[in-house]
Design a protein that fits this description.
Elements (H helix, E strand, L loop, with lengths): L2 H36 L10 H28 L4 H22 L29
Helix pairs in contact: 1-2, 1-3, 2-3
Amino acid sequence: MDDADHRTRGCAGCLAAGVVGAVTALIAWAPLARVSVTGGFEQQHRDLSVLYVDLPLVALGGALVPAVAWALGLRLLGGRAWAAALVAVAALGVGVWGLTSWWTPYERPEFTGQATLVARAPAAPFVPHPA
């Protein structure tokens, strides 16, 4: 196999790892961000900043983590594409696990204490016990 074919396979694998990583990260992130987009109960939790802040960062991180792992695996493991693919899949798995366990969208509390739902009974007067 000549050097040009080897570089082409390396670039194609890196590109494929980036695309698959970005799509996988977005699929794992979307259910977590759904409450921020739809608003939840009576649309109290609507926060569209997840679309213009978090969405690009998740896609970029999902693309970069497996692509860099692919490139490092290809370089360090002597050009073996299957070994680099395993390294990229493992890095993507750890990255998605970290994303789903660490990232949670901000949610305001449902009840802020402005209106009470339970009527409070008036406190009984203090009567000291005769000694």
